[in-house]
Amino acid sequence: MSTLPARAERRCHNAVNPLHSCLFFSPDLGAELGKLGFEDPSAVYFATRAAAFGRVGAGTVSATFYNFNPALVAEHVPAVWSVASPEQVLGARLRAADSTLRRLLGEEIIASDEMAEAARLALRATEACTPHARPLYAAHAELPVPDEPHLAFWHAATLLREHRGDAHLAALLAAGLDPVESLVSHTATGKGMAIRWILSSRGWRRTDWEAASGRLRERGLLAAGEELALTDAGTALRAEVEEATDRMDRAPYEHLGAEGVERLTELGRGFLFTAASNGAFPAEATGR
Fold first, then answer.
1. pLDDT digits (tens, 9 = 90+) for 21-33
2. Alpha-carbon distance 3 to 17, whole Å?
3. Angstrom distance (rounded) from CA 135 to CA 133
4. Is 76 exposed, middle or buried (0-12, 13-18, 19+ CB in 10 A)?
5. Distance CA 22, CA 104 (A)
6. Tens digits of per-residue pLDDT, 117-173?
7. CA nearest 80: which of 106, 53, 117, 47?
8. β-bridge partners, 230
9. Cβ(237)–Cβ(209) under 8 Å?
């Protein structure tokens, strides 16, 4: 039985994770990897997120990233490693994280006691993360913790994100949701990204989207008609996916304790508000 308030781990994740993921929307990331010879945004993304694995092939990336079209992955992996080594990519990624956080948060927050406190709390939470059946988390857990507090916080946010993300994929599989069905059903909750952005960034076609929508309707999970809306059964299934993810991701937050989780959530929300106000997330990626 959990000692945390209901959904406390999910609220904390929702506050902290965007401080990790804002890097992938940052022009600083493309600029840093551009110095290494990368040009295509998909190549930048795959190399950046997969570099912790080392020189892996397309199969590993498709399996662990889950909702990307394997054909898109194969266009760039393993070719990305002929452009730059994983070690070079990881170095560029950390430099981009540094400049991105400094730009979005400002030097006062970067140097603040609150940032140092957030780093300590987030790192403490990661002490209870486990590598079993969590390949993206396990790969990133072998990377060194940066010395500067804002980068240590970003590193810890990355570990917490991948720990939960790996669990979420297990929950999607258990729910019988394939990659495109997962994207469609999540978008139908009203919390997903813009469909056009999903299709472009994940490499799927509109016909793939419509086919997945049809399969969800056949299962009684998506309402009939042109409007993208879940049925009661679909809403229940998505809720079960999130609750299963919460259960599998509870250990880091139980380890941190209710007071620590509440404080980390408070700090993360403050940082997120500032980052979002400074344009961390592009408008074209949100909405239907």
1. 999 999 999 999 9
2. 22
3. 6
4. buried
5. 9
6. 999 999 999 999 999 999 999 999 999 999 999 999 999 999 999 999 999 999 999
7. 47
8. 222
9. no
Q: Tell me how crowded residue 5 is: count the other CB atoms within 10 A of its CB.
A: 11
Residue 56 clears pLDDT 70, i.e. is over it:
yes
Nearest partner of 55 among 83, 30, 95, judged by Cα = 83
The letter for the amino acid at 153 is F
Residue where the block lists tokens 């950390």: 94
H helix or E strand, kind and range, residue 287: none
pLDDT bin (cut points 50, 70, 90) of residue 1 is: low
CA angle 131–18–55, rounded 5-degree value: 45
> Cis peptide leading into 131, omega within 30 of 0?
no
Place of tokens 């299934």: 237
User: How many other C-beta atoms lie within 10 A of the C-beta of residue 108?
Assistant: 8
Q: How many helices (H) and strands (E) does the chain have?
A: 17, 0
pLDDT value for 3: 86
What Å distances lie between residue 78 and 33, 109, 273, CA to CA? Answer: 16, 38, 37
Please name every residue paired with 193 in a beta bridge, in sequence order, or none if there are none. 286
Phi, psi for residue 159 in degrees, rounded to 5: -60, -45
282 has pLDDT over 90: no
pTM: 0.96
Q: Which of 8, 89, 32 is nearest to 260 (CA)?
A: 8
Which long-range contacts link 57-64 to residues 24+ away (Cβ below 8 Å)?
60/135, 64/135, 64/136, 64/166, 64/169
Query: Residue type for 160, please?
Result: L
Closest CA to 14 of 282, 275, 265: 265
